[in-house]
Write the structure tokens for this entry.
Amino acid sequence: MTLDRRAALRCLGLTVGAALVAGASACSTTSTDPRPSRPTSPAQGQSPPSPTPNRSPEASTAPTGPPTEDLPVAVHDAVIGALLPGPDAVASHAGLLDHDLVLYAARDGEPVAVLPGRNFLRGPTVVAAVTTTGDWTLVLTPARQTLPSAAGASGAPAQTAAWARTDELPAMQPATASVTVRVAEQSMTITTAQGSHRHEVGVGQDSTPTPTGVSGYLQARYVDPAQALAPGAIQLTSLHATAADEPYTGTDGGLIAIHANPDPRGRVSHGCIRVRPDAVAQLDALPLGTPIVVLP
């Protein structure tokens, strides 16, 4: 799904989509304005405030490290060429930041970006880790490496990654669940310690496809009261559209989301993954940082 920077997210994948930090209010077919209403209080179920590239209020608690004032901030609508394409491996651990995290394109290299300690909802940012090699850990980011319009034949990666110092990460917990989407069969399987549940889903149209062959993580969720046909929370992933910069012609960075829709079947969205309300309830029970894998 795609995010709307002013209204806080618009789902990219819905025919009425929005998304993160695309929000889902734009995903509703009943809305004449694809942008969610401006929030009053996220804690009361309202749309979140617009994401900003400002440093976290807790930045002063970060471990001592290199200067970061001039580094780009790795948020949903940022394009940072020094980031790495997302690896084939799936994130195995996740945690909540309490300070800004410096990111590197190479171990022992120069810093290239900062993952802010606070997200667009003003809560702690989720950091998902793929692998640790001694002092360094490869983490996933919610930013883009390049836009599809500028990527050329090589294509734009749907997920990005970077190295972080292991000792600057928060307490990390192993993944206890996973979400697997199969685009061709239009299904989503939620797997937990209690078992697996399969759901029918709607996916991207041919012109605005849901990216496949990629893994990311659930980075945030929020409720948008303007999304009349999508009850429940909008689940924001760290994945982005690979065929269009802004599939819903918005300013949300082309973020992919999972959200409810009364009839989620078929190739019907702008890239987002449409599900029924019962699937949203199951997703709500998953911890943020849960890995999501999208297969052809």
User: Anything to note?
Assistant: Confidence is low (pLDDT under 50) at residues 1-62. The chain has two helices and 18 strands.
